[in-house]
Amino acid sequence: MKKQPNHAHNTEKQIRLGLRIKDLREERGLSQYACAPRLGMSRTYLADLECGRRNISFARLAAMAEGFDITLEELFKGV
């Protein structure tokens, strides 16, 4: 029997990642409007990520880490 994905677990991880992204943005004193272009995304996409409503690709994660001038490891710290 095939194991079904645990969507609640994925949502929890998305929420924790979103909170991490928000913390990184706020540590830099940036609004969503100022931060989104720096990360190569729209403000609404960033807002959805911060709230855990959106999933994100590895390529976008890498671009986000670069935009924050941190490593991927640092991006996932505490997530």
How would you portray this structure in words?
With 79 residues, this protein is mostly helical. The chain has 5 helices and no strands. It has helices at 7-27, 32-39, 43-50, 58-67, 72-75. The chain starts with 6 loop residues before the first helix and ends with a helix.
Distance between the termini: 30 Å
Radius of gyration: 13 Å
Helix content: 55-70%
In CATH, the homologous superfamily goes by the name lambda repressor-like DNA-binding domains
Q: How would a textbook summarize the main sheet? A: none
| DSSP summary, beta strand count | 0
CATH class: Mainly Alpha
CATH A-level architecture: Orthogonal Bundle
What's the structural domain tally?
1
Mean pLDDT: 90
Q: Count up the helices.
A: 5
Question: Could you name the CATH topology?
Answer: 434 Repressor (Amino-terminal Domain)
- Runs with pLDDT <50, length 5+? none
Keywords: DNA-binding, Transcription, Transcription regulation
GO molecular function, one term: DNA binding
InterPro entries: Cro/C1-type_HTH, Lambda_DNA-bd_dom_sf, TransReg_Diox_bact_type
Domain HTH cro/C1-type: 21-75
